[in-house]
Amino acid sequence: MTTMLKVDAVTRQFGGFKAVDGVSLQLKAGEILGIAGTNGAGKSTLFAAIAGQQPADAGQIQFDGQDITRIPPYRRARLGLVRTFQIPREFKSLTVHENLMAAAANPQGERLLNAFFQTRARREHEAQLSIKADRILRFLNLARVRDVKAGGLSGGQKKLVELGRVLMLDPRCILLDEPFAGVNPVLIEEICDRVRELNGQGIAFIVIEHHLQALKSLSHRMIVMDRGAILAEGDPHTVLDDPRVQEAYMGGVV
Amino acid sequence: MLSLWLLVGALSSLGGVLLGMKAVVSPEMGWESLIPAFAAMVLGGIGSPVGAVLGALLLCVAQELAVPLMGPSYKLVLSFAVLALVLLVRPAGIMGRVQLVR
Amino acid sequence: MIAYLCAIGIVALIYCLLALGLNLQFGLTRLVNFGVVAFFAVGAYTSGLLALQGVPLVLCFVAAAVLSGLLALPIGLLSLRLRDDYLAIVTLGFSEAVRISIQQESWLTKGVQGLPGLPKLFASWGSGVSDMAIFATLLAVVALVAWGTVRLAASPFGRLLKAIGDDEPALSALGKDPAWFKVQVFMLGAALAGVAGAFYAHFITFITPEQFIPLITFYVWMGLVMGGSGTVRGAVFGSLLLMVFLEGSRFAKDWIPGVSEVGMASLRLAAVGLALILVTLYKPNGLFGGSEGGAK
């Protein structure tokens, strides 16, 4: 399997404090990589460095062999590398359907003049995107709330809207930041099923989670982070038994 | 938080008293100082008290030196130009920490 | 009486136009523009100066829109680098810089003396009728712009503006660069303000730099916030409410003892500030908006 994402000794620091300290990892095409770790281990900051919300102070990031370390987030997303956020960032004033439509790549349709003079081709393109959005909403079981303003949804539904939005981009690699946080167990199972289905279609995932049971069952491979660095790496079912991991979690039930 | 605003109010009124000793006291005088004060803070570096003092000194000297070139009425325009330029080129200012303006 | 109602109707519609422009910038895209009056002034002076040279009024209006729009380009580019509160101060400083420049460059603008004797719209129709004609024209223009903004908000472009207003970094993370959209919105709102300025100039027929102070910007903001920013209905009704306030306070002066004309102006400013605070705290969606959201 080819390497899709290569993170090479990436460091992100604030003053003297290293939130991410020389982290290296590789993601193979079609893989699901799980990242676990204590709070403040630097997991979300690592995502921010990979996706571009924060700059890497050292190290290199390669996606499909291309160096993306210095390019802005919107360009990384266009290459097929997308992410969701720990606290959902839905577009509150838009409906669920509009949230997905806003994500869809539509540079011609989004022109100012297009608001008033729309060619037939543009209208058809918009209709196609709408059908695609509805298909994704059905896939995520959000069809019921299609025309509800996203600001009024439950936390779990908002996370699904985020997932729906990134799916509109036909991504190759999705970074999921705590997709199960605050979500009821039944919905967690549903989300896992969706992720497996999407993975079956060829999309690679990196998933940050605290729900270790769900993460273990979902991931092909797992990484545990602590204090900005990688503590252990390997098979999901054995990596958590590593004594260093146990110690980092301070004897908590793992 | 409340004490922050109280402190700011106290410092500002001190500034007003000092300014009033030199210039004319009018209801509008605070308004005229708004943009220059902001520009001075940004120039010196947001988050740095030493920077604020430095920025204020530099800006005022620059303003006065510019008077023979532009006339007294353009002082505020100069402050604005400094503000815009600093925010564009070096948002951290002279002594500021990480840019906090984006 | 008719003449009086006509006059305040015209001013109300001018504020409507300004509010509709600001609604695009702040209501949809959440760009804090405290420099509205700068584009209003540039529109008024551009149209006035050209008209004094004999240029046909229609062309003057077009020039006003174009120049105001172009002036917004540097501000739009500046806004890409600035967060809300910094953008507010910078746009405020910009509007003062524009006003002072207009005041100082008297070789062009006649400075503090202003431009008297500007051609009035429909002047040849006689004084009473011309005011009604101006009112009717403005009404048509405001209706057209209102329709235009509704259409814009419902379009993919409008969708993107609302997304930018809701969560710009989230939009970037989805592969879209908000930059050019923000600049466009700034320019569009500015062009509308320019047209409003041209109408103002050719109604009042005498403009001076002193008329284009930041207080005008805050009046527009008050109208928009009170009416409910983000909706056209809010912008329109808010402007009407604003007019009631402005004209009403003119009469209130007669009832409040010991208040001079100048004192009244200061009281009005205080009232604007108070109204903005109260509305933002208790009715953040405006008096005509919905009831979601509250003080944060």
Describe, in plain words, how this protein is organized in 3D.
- The complex is a heterotrimer of chains A (254), B (102) and C (296).
- Chain A has 9 helices and 10 strands.
- Chain A is an alpha/beta fold and 254 residues long.
- Chain B has a domain of 64 residues.
- In chain B, 73% of the residues lie in helices and 0% in strands.
- Chain B is flat, with a radius of gyration of 14 Å.
- Chain C has 296 residues and is mainly α.
- Chain C has one domain.
- Chain C contains 11 helices and no strands.
- In chain C, helix 1 packs parallel to helix 6 and helix 1 packs across helix 10.
- Classes of the chains: A alpha/beta (254), B mainly alpha (102), C mainly alpha (296).
- At the A-C interface, helix 2 and helix 3 of A face helix 6, helix 7 and helix 8 of C.
Topology overview:
The complex is a heterotrimer of chains A (254), B (102) and C (296).
Chain A: E1 3-14, E2 17-28, E3 32-37, H1 43-51, E4 58-63, E5 66-67, H2 73-79, E6 81-83, H3 96-103, H4 120-139, H5 155-167, E7 173-177, H6 185-200, E8 204-208, H7 212-218, E9 221-226, E10 229-234, H8 236-239, H9 243-248
Parallel strand pairs in A: 3-8, 3-9, 6-7, 7-8
Antiparallel strand pairs in A: 1-2, 1-4, 4-5, 9-10
Helix pairs in contact in A: 3-5
Chain B: H1 2-22, H2 29-44, H3 49-70, H4 75-89
Helix pairs in contact in B: 2-3, 2-4, 3-4
Chain C: H1 2-28, H2 36-52, H3 57-79, H4 84-104, H5 106-109, H6 127-154, H7 156-172, H8 179-204, H9 214-227, H10 232-255, H11 261-282
Helix pairs in contact in C: 1-6, 1-7, 1-8, 1-9, 1-10, 2-3, 2-4, 2-8, 3-8, 6-7, 9-10, 9-11
